[in-house]
Design brief:
Strand content: 15-25%
Number of strands: 13
Pathway: Protein modification; protein ubiquitination
Number of helices: 12
Largest sheet: 6 strands, mixed
Radius of gyration: 26 Å
CATH class of the largest domain: Alpha Beta
Shape: elongated
Number of domains: 2
Family: Belongs to the BACURD family.
CATH architecture of the largest domain: 3-Layer(aba) Sandwich
GO molecular function: ubiquitin-protein transferase activity
Structural class: alpha+beta
Distance between the termini: 70 Å
Order of helices and strands: EEEEHHEEHHHHEHEEEEEHHHHEH
Protein name: Potassium channel tetramerization domain containing 10
Strand order of the largest sheet: 1-4-3-6-5-2
CATH topology of the largest domain: Glutaredoxin
CATH superfamily of the largest domain: Glutaredoxin
Helix content: 25-40%
Pfam families: BTB_2
Length: about 325
Amino acid sequence: MSGESVVSSAVPAAATRTTSFKGSSPSSKYVKLNVGGALYYTTMQTLTKQDTMLKAMFSGRMEVLTDSEGWILIDRCGKHFGTILNYLRDGAVPLPESRREIEELLAEAKYYLVQGLVDECQAALQNKDAYEPFCKVPVITSSKEEQKLIATSNKPAVKLLYNRSNNKYSYTSNSDDNMLKNIELFDKLSLRFNGRVLFIKDVIGDEICCWSFYGQGRKIAEVCCTSIVYATEKKQTKVEFPEARIYEETLNILLYESQDGRGPDNALLEATGGAAGRSHHLEEDEERERIERVRRIHIKRPDDRAHLHQARW
């Protein structure tokens, strides 16, 4: 149970008192900690395992603040405290992916005087400065690689598939420009949301131009930008640029972003119609059916349908 957050929301204020804390049996005694409103249970053995400020607090060398229910109060943000406890217990811990979260963890490690974790965070930040590009967009080489990227990422994902395989005369006159606009928008979104969303390029698929949006490892929506039109007895492919729809789906996918390492906000997903927020209300069969369902948007104008109808007759 060491390092496990029990409650992540703020707790009501209670009467407090300052005492010197000294446990009688550090190997078995559990301690209740309230760190900025996040509640943790852990052992005295974990807290005193390394020479840190927490060891000083729980070996009687420093005074601690407790409330009437016995919770020991620490006036710090509790977001990364679980990581601090895991490091104290195990001597190692996976670091966050984003630079911002590593910097936040570094600040907490410095406060609690966890020198080993301070060194690891500083080394990770130096490596990011030296080797990591500001924005990385993988170009997938197989569908298996795509599935692995999406399944192992803790971020929502946006994939643009484009493949201009036919000759130029098989497309309508504006298709080249619209294809370029789709690619340019993808690049701009990658720069804007690179720290929050995983962007993937696919140039090996069968579609000509298609956007896919993923949350929690599954496809949530798809925007297909191509349609078939008939003009002067010739069938042509039209590539559209549904800019507003792409922006809308990109913003929708941000609802699946992890909040403070606790996963997406299910209440927000439920309020906005997000599938993940409804999952706990569904039976097993309904859940399986929901997972197979994807919101697909095919861009097609009224004149396209008219041409298609005339061609069939």
